[in-house]
Task: structure prediction
Amino acid sequence: MGNVCRSLAILIAVASAGCPGPEKSVKKSQTRLDLAKDFLSKRQLEAAENEANKSIALNPSNDEAYNVRGLVSMLRAIETQRTLEIDACLTGVDAEATRKDLDRFLQNADIDFKKATVVAPDYGEAWSNRGVVANLMEEYPTAVTYLTKALENPIRLMSPGLSRSHLAWALFHQQKYVDAAKELRTVRQFDPNMCVATYRLGRVYFAREEWDKAAELFETVSNDPSCGSQEASLYLMKTRMQQGLVDDARRARDACLKISPQSCAASKCRADGGALGQGHP
Result:
């Protein structure tokens, strides 16, 4: 019998000797994946998606390629949500159409993150990304399941603290305030300056009507330019109003309105803070 590899090579007109075995495809797939990651880091989403598709075609078991392609869809969803809520607070038919796009991007992201976890059940980052998508889709019990799975597989998890913050957010939305606070305090033990964890712990205290604790955390985030959190200023205003500190509430409202004047958060600042007046000249 002749050499099978050589016969196959002749039949498919391969120029090089021998069979292009799985190892060669894996290497090519990795090269495409590296290109996809580079494009993704530059927010060149179409190019990143194209390279991820090529990577998967070369090696359908490339779990990272599925994760990267999922991130492309998730970033598109986040950009769509920004259009919906931040750049312009859309309403009516415009909002409805944009939400349909948002849902489609999130569904596509989850499909790819799921494929990544099927290929590699210990892929903590893909589980975490599924949890983020579930939070964005307001499927909070599902988010808890995925984010718990992510934390159980920390070896391939980029930021356990951020994943734990997402877990706490899912718990918060189920009114499990004690559990949410516990997770967020754990995060802040190791990273006291994490904007996401600080703001979300403030929201827990706000929901529990612990005004002083909430105000301290919202003020920390609001005063940190690196956080850029309009919601922190909104909730700082709300908290100061509960405390009866009118001047402080006005300052928080004004800070809120400066960040993104056309956003939904700004609309809430105007509506909720309208009774505060303009303050002293």
Q: What stands out?
A: Residues 27-158 form a domain with the Serine Threonine Protein Phosphatase 5, Tetratricopeptide repeat fold (CATH 1.25.40.10).
